[in-house]
TrEMBL record:
Class of enzymatic activity (EC top level): hydrolase
Subcellular location: Cell membrane; Membrane
Gene3D superfamilies the record matches: 2.30.42.10
Cofactor: Zn(2+)
InterPro entries found in the cross-reference section: PDZ, PDZ_6, PDZ_sf, Pept_M50_Zn, Peptidase_M50
UniProt key word Protease: yes
Protein name as annotated: Zinc metalloprotease
């Protein structure tokens, strides 16, 4: 149960922050957003505020911001259909009433001849009370009314396509950007709570019932040499211990200017990895001394976010290279099942470890969404860049076909990765 809750919370936070980035920048650009959804599938909660329906859906994977655009507008009006119109007296429509469940007065009943709610924004209809053919236009704030609920019709000026290239680029990039911001915030909080390990091989704490405790190591001891080799850093110390193996170590330590030599034999620490394999390493049972500060954790948080982003980007590039040279394996990827198993194991190690894992996942999500793959933010950014460079949008049919190919590609990859996860963890 803990693993399931951790998975839901982690993914809920990552998706909410990502989609919130899109929503904030879309609204700042004046783009109408009919829905902000967390999760997929049937709605389990909804609340409407400022023309946006905020929903939580059943399946805790994914989410979206539905932005007003030509392709998203669905016209419920058909030729010959009878509806009631509420106008401002100058044939400009404020409400299109699709049923009789309303309390509007002074409405006109019409029979639709022709309508367009995406480009020209008009309704040509026969007014039933006098048989006159009238062309109605839309007011800036017009609604469909059905089952006593209002659904605003997006005006041309409030649609994604109508905004400048710069506004659209910022709106699309805002999701990944917010994932980087989340990672930075989490790393910074962790540095404030835990501090940052110093680079020198200085003991911060000694674990109970370990070779270090038996040998008398204590907090503040600085490891100078191991079996005669000078120790340059904490990482170098760990490397020497692995190289020496399960043999007795002569370690020279300095504390408060006093030098002494201690002897101990490392023990094997076994760690079970999420894929079921076991990793073994030699340890002596000490932890690094932690450095703290007031401003420094902010700088460390930014540095950690950059380093993690560089590492993940490098791994992604290596993955594409492996696809090109034929060495790719689906073991390089984790789908929802694999991430769930890893999250479950990480959650068992405590809140601090789970926060760090969430920060790493957030960086990963930001980078993956910026990949130039259709259906991802990066693919849509490419289409907008094309329009900015060539001063005209890509052919609509071509763009839709590319998007469809991208969606199918992602679905196939997701199915294959999920099946590989199931085989790895459960079969």
């Amino acid at each position: 149960m803990t693993g399931i809750l951790a998975f839901i919370v982690v993914f809920g936070v990552l998706v909410t922050v990502h989609e919130l980035g899109h929503l904030i920048f879309a609204k700042r650009a004046g783009i109408m957003c009919p829905e902000f959804a967390i999760g997929m599938g049937p709605k389990i909660f909804s609340h409407k505020y400022n023309d946006t329906l905020y929903t939580v859906r059943l399946l805790p994977v994914g989410g979206y911001v539905r932005m007003a655009s030509d392709e998203m507008e669905v016209n419920p009006l058909n030729a010959g259909m009878r509806v009631q119109l509420k106008t401002d007296g100058e044939d400009r429509i404020s409400h299109i009433i699709l049923d009789d469940k309303h309390n509007f007065t002074q409405v006109e009943e019409v029979e639709v001849i022709q309508s367009d709610i995406t480009k020209e924004m008009f309704i040509k209809a026969i007014r039933l009370h006098d048989g006159e053919e009238v062309v109605y236009t839309f007011s800036d704030e017009a609604y469909f009314v059905q089952n006593s609920e209002l659904e605003r019709i997006a005006p041309r000026a409030a649609r994604f396509e109508s905004k400048s290239v710069g506004h659209r680029l910022m709106t699309l990039a805002a999701g990944p950007l917010m994932n980087f911001v989340l990672a930075f915030a989490l790393f910074t909080v962790l540095f404030y709570i835990n501090g940052k390990p110093v680079e020198e091989a200085v003991v911060g704490f000694v674990a109970e019932d370990t070779p270090a405790e038996e040998a008398g190591l204590k907090s503040g001891d600085h490891l100078e040499t191991i079996n005669g080799q000078e120790v340059d850093s904490w990482e170098h110390m760990s490397t020497i211990i692995q190289q020496e193996g399960e043999t007795e170590l002569d370690i020279t330590v300095v504390n408060d200017g006093e030098s002494r030599t201690v002897e101990m034999t490392p023990i094997v620490e076994k760690t079970e990895l999420p894929d079921g394999e076991t990793r073994e390493r030699l340890v002596i049972g000490i932890g690094a001394e932690m450095e703290r500060g007031v401003i420094s954790p902010i700088l460390w948080g930014a540095e950690q976010t950059y380093e993690m982003g560089t590492l993940i980007f490098t791994l992604v590039v290596q993955m594409f290279i492996s696809i090109a040279d034929g060495t790719f394996s689906f073991d390089m990827l984790n789908g929802p099942v694999g991430i769930y198993k890893v999250t479950e194991d990480v959650a068992a190690q405590g809140l601090m470890t789970l926060m760090r894992f969430t920060a790493i996942l957030s960086v990963n999500l930001g980078i993956m969404n910026l990949l130039p793959i259709p259906a991802l933010d990066g693919g849509r950014i490419l289409f907008v860049l094309y329009e900015g460079i060539f001063k005209k949008p890509l052919n609509r049919r071509v763009e839709l076909n590319i998007q469809l190919i991208g969606v199918l590609f992602l679905l196939i990859v997701m199915v294959l990765v999920t099946w590989n996860d199931i085989k790895t963890f459960f079969l």
